[in-house]
Amino acid sequence: SKVARDISDRKRADEHLRSLMRELSHRTKNVMAVVHGISWQTARQSPDIKDFEQRFTQRLAALSSSHDLLVQRDWQGVVLEDLVRAQLEPFLDSANERLAAHGPALLLRPQAAQDLGMALHELATNASKYGALSVPTGKIEIAWTVDGETADGKRFRMTWRESGGPMVSPPGRTGFGSKVITRSLSGTLKGKTDLEYRAEGVSWQLTAPMGGLIAELH
Q: DSSP class of residue 213?
């Protein structure tokens, strides 16, 4: 009986290991595809090698930051507030004074954490160059909610609002960052994004179905 139990335990452990290896292979391929896409798009819109190196390095760092949070929870998900602060803090000299982040305790699924993390990075990069984070008086408010039941279930809503910065206007061309925070999220998260260049600061909103995106923490 003891031998039979040992063999069964060993089989379960072997199957668990094989499952982990399959999952690791899948995630590695996914990450490599994302890195390839980032490098290609960054190269297309970089005027020289120095600009490419800077932008590419920053985007890889943003991706790595999201993955670090995923590893801490064994790839089960990322707490949304942790993701927001991890992506914004590199751009802030006094996070508590210049960043207001609030909303219910939510756990992002791995793919959503990766995509939303990149979007927050691109928004912060734009703000540091042209918006609220380009001056000492600028501030950013990030809020998220889960709406009540609708015809297609609960919906997640997230907003980004800048204030206290210079007057902004729409850019002359659409770059990689704009695509990430609008078209890419609309596709991968099956949601809708709105990006406005208001005089008082950039305003961005994401609305997406909750299923497949987040799970509430208990």
A: T
- C-alpha 67 chain-centroid distance: 10
How far apart (Å, rounded) are the C-alpha atoms in residues 76 and 70? 7
Consecutive H or E run containing 188: helix 185-188
- DSSP line for 51-90: HHHHHHHHHHHHHHHHHHHHHHTTTS-EEHHHHHHHHHGG
- Which residue's structure tokens are 């809503």? 157
Torsion, Cα of 202, 110, 27, 116 (10° steps)? 0
The answer to whether the predicted template modeling score (pTM) of the entire model surpasses 0.70 is: yes
The one-digit pLDDT tens for each residue of the chain (218 residues) are 666 666 777 777 777 677 767 766 667 777 777 787 888 888 888 889 998 899 889 999 999 999 899 888 888 889 999 999 999 988 987 656 889 999 999 999 988 999 999 999 999 999 999 999 999 899 999 999 998 765 567 889 999 999 999 988 887 777 778 888 887 787 778 889 999 998 889 999 999 988 778 766 54
Question: Which residues, at least 6 apart from 90, have a Cβ–Cβ distance to it below 8 Å?
Answer: 61, 124
Strands 78-79 and 201-209: unpaired
CB 59 within 8 A of CB 42: yes
Distance CA 128, CA 47 (A): 20
